[in-house]
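I'd like us to work through together how a protein chain folds, taking it slowly. To get us started, please write out a protein record for me. Label the sequence line and the structure token line clearly, so we can match residues to local backbone shapes. Once you have written the record down, we can walk along the chain together.
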Amino acid sequence: VQLQASGGGLVQAGGSLRPSCSASTGPFVGNAIGWFRQAPGKEREFVATLRRSGGNTYYADSVKDRFTISRDSAKTTLYLQMNNLKPDDTAVYYCAYTYAVLSSYRDVNQYNGWGQGTLVTVSS
């Protein structure tokens, strides 16, 4: 199963974007579905994840209170509402799934299904 992200773009600082993510086979798999990002010259980092059972959400400190991860009622599309964007948020955003336990939800190496990401550029 591969996950595809879309909906990035160019936005000014303080603006908003809402990229989305869908699975190649329809319903999501795994224990959780997450968003990660990779800025030029940096490693891929955790942004947020949503637990499939129960819908609990978890965020990186850098995006907490600005970003919201959610899914649609059919549970086939994942969203990342990004508000009050900053130039440091500029990156390619990816979504992926994991079968890991809660304590490993922030570990990029625990995730699978990496597809093509979507570029988010925030201008100052």
Notes: The chain has a mean pLDDT of 95. Residues 100 and 110 are 6 Å apart (CA to CA). The longest strand covers residues 91-98. The radius of gyration is 13 Å.
